Amino acid sequence: MWGVKANDDSDVDGIMVYYPIYGGRQDQYLQSVVSPHKDVEGLNHQFLFNLYHNIRFINPTTLRPPPASHLPTPLPSKSTGATPSSDPTPPGTVKSVLPCTPLAIVKVLEHIGVYNSLLAYGDRARGKVITVINRSEVVGRPLAALLANDGARVLSVDVDSIVEFSKRPTTSSTPTSKYNPHHVSTPLDPSFKLEDCLKISDVVISAVPVASYKVPTSALKDGCICVNVAGEKNFEADVRERASIYVPSVGVMTIAMLQRNLLRLCTYRDVEKQLSESPF
């Protein structure tokens, strides 16, 4: 099979598959066939496991977390108020690869100010309500988890249900964080509709691959941010009458994140080589 051959080919640094191909479980199987050491899309089960469990830093050889790395980064202490100015990568670890399109959307949101850089790393989307339309396994679901793990309240809308993704307050007495280690998903009452999501959402992200689908401008919260991810335009022509910022496409940023993931995989390989050559 092509995937297995490319996995073993030393001349191949990364593999990209343009999903969907078959859809459903067959595509999930293909995602797992691609070696995580060459998966530039970040859809291998190991990377998805890391994402859904909010595992940000991993051993570059095993691609799994060192002990206790699944715990969230501690929030600033009340006594000092210190906030990390950058991503605090622990010694001996590297960042886990993330799915390229969800990561591209996060980078867009960071650039336009949805993320608050004054807050602690891992909590910078706190206070934001974000609606994500289409809970696909390639974009919608991992995006909802990624945003929720960064502190947002995410309303994930699909054809038959609306599910809330968030880091709920924990009942644990552990002082390291006031959030769960990772997001939890909670199905909302069927009476809660898309319009209810839109009127409270600071950000609306739509990824419906159907030309006829349009998010109604009249239902949007005034001043919200709208991001179109689908190849088709999911927002009406007058979207800017309600939206303070409208992002019509994230394709270029997705390509940049593919390149970023490729460089990250090369870093894994280089670090692994250094470790294997080390006398200790």
Strand content: 5-15%
Let me know the CATH homologous superfamily of the largest domain. Answer: NAD(P)-binding Rossmann-like Domain
The CATH topology of the largest domain is what? Rossmann fold
Helix/strand class: alpha/beta
Q: What pattern of helices and strands is seen along the backbone? A: HHHEEHEHEEEHEEEH
How much is the radius of gyration in Å?
A: 19 Å
Distance between the termini: 38 Å
The main β sheet shows up as: 7 strands, mixed
Briefly, what CATH class of the largest domain? Alpha Beta
The second-level CATH architecture of the largest domain is 3-Layer(aba) Sandwich
Instruction: Indicate how many domains the architecture comprises.
Output: 2
Poorly predicted sequence stretches spanning 5 or more consecutive residues: 74-80
The level of helicity is 25-40%
Oligomeric grouping of the chains: single chain
**Average pLDDT value?**
87
Large-scale geometry:
globular
The count of DSSP E runs of length 2 or more, i.e. the number of strands, is 9
Contiguous helical run count: 7
Biased composition (Polar residues): 77-86
GO cellular component, one term: cytosol
Pfam families: THF_DHG_CYH_C
GO molecular function: methylenetetrahydrofolate dehydrogenase (NAD+) activity; methylenetetrahydrofolate dehydrogenase (NADP+) activity
Name a few traits of the molecule:
THF_DH/CycHdrlase_NAD-bd_dom; two-stranded antiparallel ribbon; NAD(P)-bd_dom_sf; Tetrahydrofolate dehydrogenase/cyclohydrolase NAD(P)-binding domain-containing protein; about 280 residues; single chain; Rossmann fold; 2 domains; 7-stranded mixed β-sheet; methylenetetrahydrofolate dehydrogenase (NADP+) activity; alpha/beta
